[in-house]
Amino acid sequence: MSDEASVWLQYARENLQVAQMTLESGLLNPCLQNAQQAIEKALKGVLVCRNMPLKRTHSIRDLNRDLLRDGWETNLAEEDCELLDSIYVSSKYPLDSVLPHSLPDLDICRRCVELANQTVILAESVIET
Known about the structure:
Radius of gyration: 14 Å
Shape: globular
CATH topology: Four Helix Bundle (Hemerythrin (Met), subunit A)
Helix content: 55-70%
CATH class: Mainly Alpha
Number of strands: 0
Structural class: mainly alpha
Oligomer: single chain
Largest sheet: none
């Protein structure tokens, strides 16, 4: 197990935990931010573990495609990647809405936390073996 990959995974777990806590508290923007970050960091941990180049990107779509090309199934559908990529910048700043045409809601947050949980579990299966 790579030390660097383990650090990425630990950060992903922390973001997932914060996403779950903020969801339970009804804090939707931080929930989305942390769910997106958990997925991004988990995927980057897998890239490091697989000795793949680490890109400076926040795009879940790009990270997902790189891993798919390398033969690792992330279980993130294209529409999941689109949703997660729509969250990154817009959930941090109040000038934009969190999603292209709507404010965050509980269903979107639950979906993103579920995706983050699944992705962290998959990353653990690669990084911790």
